[in-house]
Every structure is written in structure tokens, then in C-alpha cells.
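Page 37, continued from 36.
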């Protein structure tokens, strides 16, 4: 799933994959896309399964890296969901 979104695991963190992100983000990174809710569910599932560090790594990547790279393409409502899920 990380590859689909153009991000990758780096050690214990998750970061934008500079080689894949530009192409992959065109698929899912626009306001109201259903993948935004899917990412919320992924973080929630990771936390529920006890993988809180992974959930927080994805959350940090989305709220910091992806939100900065996609200014204006993620709604405030989505950002609030991502911020509150973990």
C-alpha cells in the first residue's frame, strides 16, 4: 500500500518516495478522493492491531510531508481526521 501512495518505509519511519510520489500522487492526491478515508482506516487499523508506532509514522508522513507537498489538495476535514485518528 505504501508504494501505491508513493511513500516508503525508511528504518522505523515512513517518508515520501521521491522517485514514485509525483506519479502516484496524481492518482489519489486531490480533494475528496476516497483514498484519504482509506488512509485514515489504515492508521486506525494499525493502532488497533497494536502497531501504534507504524500508525504514528504514517500519520507524521501524511500530516507533515504529504500535506506540505500537496498544499491545497487535502481538505481541512481530511487533515483533521488524520490528526485525530491516532
Amino acid at each position: 500500500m505504501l508504494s501505491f501512495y508513493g511513500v516508503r518505509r525508511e528504518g522505523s519511519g515512513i517518508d515520501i518516495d521521491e522517485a514514485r510520489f509525483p506519479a502516484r500522487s496524481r492518482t489519489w492526491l486531490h480533494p475528496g478522493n476516497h483514498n484519504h478515508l482509506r488512509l485514515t482506516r489504515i492508521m486506525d487499523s494499525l493502532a488497533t492491531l497494536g502497531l501504534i508506532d507504524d500508525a504514528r509514522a504514517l500519520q507524521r508522513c501524511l500530516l507533515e510531508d504529504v500535506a506540505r507537498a500537496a498544499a491545497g489538495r487535502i481538505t481541512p476535514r481530511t487533515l483533521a481526521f488524520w490528526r485525530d485518528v491516532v
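The two ends are 19 Å apart (CA to CA). Flag for discussion at group meeting. The helical segments are 2-5, 21-28, 34-48, 52-69, 76-84.
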